[in-house]
Structures are given as C-alpha cells and as structure tokens.
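request received
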Amino acid sequence: MNAGASAVPLACEHLSIRYGRTRVLEDVSFTVPPGCVYALLGRNGAGKSSLVRCLIGQQRAGSGRAVLFGRDAWRDRAALMARVGLVPEEPDAPPELSPSRLLALTGRLYARWDEGATRERLRRFAIPMETPFARLSKGQKGAVQLALALGHAPELLILDDPTLGLDVVARDQVFREVIGELADRGATVLITTHDLAAIEGIADRVGMLRDGRLVLDESLEAVKERYALPLERIFADVTSPSAGGVP
Amino acid sequence: MSERVAVRALLAIAAREVSERVGLLGLAVVVAVVPFLAPWLGIGDRPLLGVLLGVVMVFSAAVLTGSSVIARDLAEGRLGYLFSRPVPWWSIWGGKMLAAFVLTFVAGAIVLAPSAAVGDWRLPAGGWWAQIGVPGLIAVIGIVNVLAVGYRARSLWFAADLAMAGGLVWLAAHTFRGLRDLAVDASHIDYASLAIWTIALAVMLAGAAQMAQGRADIARSHRVMAITVWAVLAPAVCAYAAWGTWVGRAAPSNLRLALSAWSAPKGSWIVVTGRARWPRPESLSAALLVDPSTGRFLRLGPAFSALHPEFTADATRMAWVSNPFGRTPRLAIGDLAQATPALHDVPLPIPPGPVTGFALSPDGRYAAVAQPALATVFALGSAQAAATAATGQDRLSSIAFDDHDRAHLLNPRQAPLSPGRLDIAVIDPGARSAATTGHIDTRGNPSETWAPGAVTVAVVHRPDLRPSLTLHDGTTGALLGTLVPEGGAGRIFATFLRDGRLAVVTSGRSVTLRLFSAQGIESWSLEVAPMFSLARATEAAPGILAVELSLLGRGSRSDTVLVDANAGRVIRTETGLRPAAASWFAWRSQTLPDDGSLFIDDRGALVRLDIATGARQVLLGGS
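response:
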C-alpha cells in the first residue's frame, strides 16, 4: 500500500487560478472521499478543465493547492500519476501511433501495467488495433484513452468531459466501463461533464461551478431531495448567471 | 517512482520520437547517394558535395528535430499525454532531446560516412571541430526549441525575447569588435567554444526548466523558458562586456612585453605598445602614453595604429592616424602641454579610404597624409585641405617636412617591382600648391628614408633582390651618390642621424656599419659582426649609433652594438637588448631625438639605457 493510501484521494484547498487579469477559479475547496464518484458540473468556461489540470499537476494554482492522497499535486505529480488515471477532454495521444503501439508505449511508462486487461477492454470497444490514433473516430479515441487510463488500475480516475461529442452508444460504453471499474475495485472518480442524465446513475456527490466559484457541493441525493427537481433544472438554476447563490 | 522506470520511460519516449521521424533517416540515405551520382549528373565535385550535403543534413536535422520534438506537442496539446503518466519531467525532456541528438548525428553520419569511407574527406586534425561542432549542434537544437516554443506560444513576450536577443547580440558583437581591435584573439577556438557552450547551456537549461515548471502549459512554458535563457545569457554577455572593458583598461603595470616605443623630443612622455600580462589575454596589444617619471599614463585606445605617432619639435603635441587602413580613418591629437594630457579627434580633410603615410610638421602647424591616389596637406585642426597632389601608387609612403613646412614625398609612376622613375612631389600648404620638383631613377620597389628637413633622401632599390642604395637631393632628386651598388650587400638599412649624416648597415657574410656625410661622402666603415644578421641601426644618443643584431642563432633575441659615430669605433656590445624605435613593428621609423635611449630587453621590458655607463633602468614590462 502506498504512503498516504488512507488519505483523502482528492481535495482542493482554496484553489484559485487566474489567466492574466481573468479570474478562472476563486477559492475553490472540496474533497472527494475514497470510493466516491464526484460529478463536477459547470457551464462552458466555468473553470472545470483548469481545475482538472491543477489536479493532475499540469498547471500550477495561483493560490491554494490541489491535493491527491495527501500530497501536493504539482510538487509530487510524477509519483501521484501512478495512482491516477486521466481521460482528457481532448484526446492527446500521439496521433501517428496505433492503439497497439500506444499500448506498448504507455505500458513502458508505468511500473505496474496490466496489458492483458487493457487489450481486453480495447477488444470490447471494438477498436482497430493497427489504425493510427489520428484516424480513429472520436468515440474510438475516447475509448482508447479510457482503456489506457485504466491500464494501471488507478485508485483515482479523473474524467474530463469524457462523453463530449460522443454518440449515445459510445457514451454508454464509457459509463459502463466506469461503472464496471467501480464495481470491481471501488475506485474514486472525479468526472466533469455536461451529461447530467448519465451521471445521475453513478454519482454520489455533485459540485457545481459558476463563474469560477464552487456554489454547490453536496451529495446527489440531498440535492435532489432539497430541490425536488430534475438534475437538469437544478443545474440550470444554480449555474445561471442570474442566480444569486445556493438557495 | 524508481530511477529504473524513469530511465525506461526516457528511452521509450526517445524511441517513439525517433520512430515518428524515421523518414528523416531515409532522406539521409538518399542524400548520401547524391555525391556518388554527381559525376553523372554533372552537379559538381564529389568530395565537396559530400561534405556540403553532410553539413546541410546535420544542420537541417538539428533544426527539424529541435523545432518539433517539444514545441509541436506543446502547441497541439499532446504533451499532457506524457505528463499524465508517472514520468518525471526529466524523462520526458531527456527522451525528446536524446531523440533530437540521435536523429541529428545519425542523419549526418549517414550522409558523411560513405564519402569518408572512400577517402573524400577526413576529420580535421586538432579536434577543433569537436570543440565547436558538438556544442554547436546542442546549441542549434536548443535555440530552435526555444524559438519554436516562443513562436507557437503566440505571446507578445516573444517580441520582448527578440528585443532582448538583439540587445545582447549587439553588446556581444560590440565587445568582440573592441577586443579584436585590441588584437585580442577573440575568435580563438577556446573563446568560441566557451561562448557556444554558454549558449548551449542556456538553451538546454531553458528546455529543462520549461519541462519542470511549464509542463503542458505553453504560455507558462514560454515564460519559464524566457526567464531561464535570459537569466543565463544576460549575465554571461554582461560579464563578457565587463571583461572586455576591463581588458581594454590595461595600465602600464599590466604590460608584460613591450613591442615598440617612441619618446617625445622633450620631456618624459613615451608612447609604448605592448602585450599584456595574465590575467589579461597575452595577445592583447595595448598602446599607452606613459610618463615613467610620474606614473601618469593615458590609454591611446584600440584604434592606435601602426603609423607611429608624430610629435611636434617642442613636444607639446602628438598626433597619429587611427584606423588608418579602414574606410574612415581619424586623426587623433594628444595635447601634452597640459598637466593632464587629453586626447581628442580633429578633422581629417581627406577622401574616404586608407591612409598610407602620415607626417606632422616640426612646428605642429601642418599634417600631411598620403593615400593610394592622393596626398593631402592641411593645417592641423582645419577641416579644409591646404594643398593636394595626385599620387600614382598604393604603397606605404614616407613623408617629410622641410624647414618651410613643405611636405616632400616620392611618387612612383610604374608598377612596384618595375624599373622606372620616382617623382618628387613637394606640397606647399602656405602657397596652396603642389609641384613635381624632380625625379629619381629606380630599379624598382623603392624604400625611401628622408633626412631631417627633407634635405636629402636615401633610397634602397629592390630591397627584395640584390638591393642598392642611392642618396639624392630631397627636392631635385639629383643623385648625390650610389652608396651601395647592386650586388654590394644582401640587405641594406639606412638611417639618418639628426645632424644629417647617414648611417648604413649592410648585411651579407658579415654586418658592416658605414657612415656617410650629408653629401654622401663615406667617413668610415666598420665591421660590427662577422656573420649574417638582420641588422638595423638608430641614433641612441647624439653621435652614438646603436646597431641591432637580431637572429644570431638565439631565436628572437637581439644584441646591440653601440658605436661612436664620430670616432668610428665600437663602444661596447649590449647583450639581450634592441633599440625600441627600430622595432620591426614600427613603420618607417625615423630618427627621433630620444628614441635611441629606449631599448627592449629579451624579457620584453622597456629599458632606458645609460649610454655612458651601460646602466639599465626598467621602465615597464618584462615577464
């Protein structure tokens, strides 16, 4: 077991990000307990992707910090990534490599890598193994990225709008895989998405960002009970520019 | 994460980058064949083409890989793929740089190896190519990476980067030119290698910092990279500039080796040129105006020229032409009458172009300048020429003023080595006129020495082949005598004493000193050395001749024989000493009143010799 295994898998502590004079995130704090599926919702430009980049140590926060398993995500990025799987919003795998070669390359970047399970996932997704990544469909690219993110059996899975632009079939595949991973290993998941219907079935907790501020951070059940409205209505109300705050 | 996994990741990343660009190596194979097809295709010389294509291939590979391995992934948002893996930044950076180096070296080797194998070329001896080539390629790859990231970041800061780069390049070039003017071997391979290594270090550190701190964020990457590059290069260039300034501020105590010296006719001012001692570069050539009696000194600057300085008879002024062989020479004046001498430029009313001769009238009113096509006389300080004369040949000219401030010079009309006629041009600034007042026949390649007041002129004909020496009237050119006939000596050196007598040193199987009256009548002849020597003479004190005997089988050491000109006898031999003003580096050295008492010893020290007692006083220098 890694040091810090008992620590909270994911926490944001007063995280703020600015791009020049533009404030993207302002004093965002929340935690994701072990085994929890946390859905982070927000409109376009709410700061979700910036927050994810901070969480995976690719961007430094202006103030505050992102903490994974008790360790600073920026400072200890390389070590933490052994316990984290990421599916980025935009597929970022080398475009000239086929899934087969991507599998070989990615496997060499990890100390622990389950090539058999990854190949099996790719087979289930019906991914052509020798087609260059650049020539795969958007759904296939997402599936490959998900398979590669799960290949080292991460304790924390971060999904940055993984179903953006996917058709219904591909979207279901992604969520089935996530649910399967949860069922198998009880991994912790942070998911940012617009796909509110999909997360209703798997999310334990939900956070909503508006203008860079976290305006809601509660269990999904409590939110639905309090509002007595469909999640889509709640999202629209809470993240509307005219909304004053959490009722 | 273990080091083993990190290194494995580094190699995996490098392999992936190489495999992505394997087409470059294929291109290299095709290019490697081209030189061997050259004879059939008629596109040039095979060995030359092989080396040329090899160099182009190496450079192109460095640029192509350097611009893409990191910057392209960063700009296209694909670097995050590696940063979201448990891979340290140095594995990513190292893998990508390793791939760039491997591709560059292998592509170059593929092109160059076949040509080398058939003997078309071989690596130059001395290893300089490795001193320059290895850091050069590292620098090229790193620079291109920095430029590519800066460009792709699309930030206004890139303009600031370019401005900073321009400023530093200007400062470095300015310093380099200054050092070069001081004869510092600034382009020496060690300096060049150090400079390139510094640039390579800066851009490689910048690349590393970009990965460590910028990661997948291109804007931040650019910022971090720029800060690192300038944090290394700006202090380095400033330090170089400061060093260059410090080098140029050599004081008399910093001189190790005196090369030549001239003293003012009165007072104690001496102009001395010499090489510096460590820690300044030994090649540094400093020119100083020094008063050894008080320790005062003045730097004459890097533009001080081989045209030796001219003093007025009362030693209140000195003048010299700086940058004489450039397009825009300048005339510098030193005012020695003041307690603190000052240097300043005065107008030099001549056409743009090199200066081949310079003289100052004894009273300091006029200066004369010879150029390849024109001789000009002007009042010192005036921006107008007083009189000019056309000259016909690009040669170093000796000019002399007579007692009426008229400038005399010889003007050959034929090709340098051909027999022919020399015109005597006399330029009168008072009458604002110039005239050809006489002619001298020459066997070719004349080398003239004027008597004080331009009363007579001694001409050595064909000093390069069976030289001869004739003495002529300084105005009409009338032959006063053939002092050394053709074939009479292997080498001739003539110098006038201040009373107008002429001392002639001939070298052949022995070295002979001969003294002639102002009319060319031989007074006496004396063998001063029984063997050949490159001998020269100067008047060390009134009536005392110092004959330098150099290269007597002792490397660059010289001895000096002191001769009583009135009695025609040797006084004594000073070993390890040579007259300072008769330096090989002094141009057309004229006899100046006190020059003769200045000597340079074999340790490079400038020495004032007491002719009567032989006591030597070291003024400066000496290793």
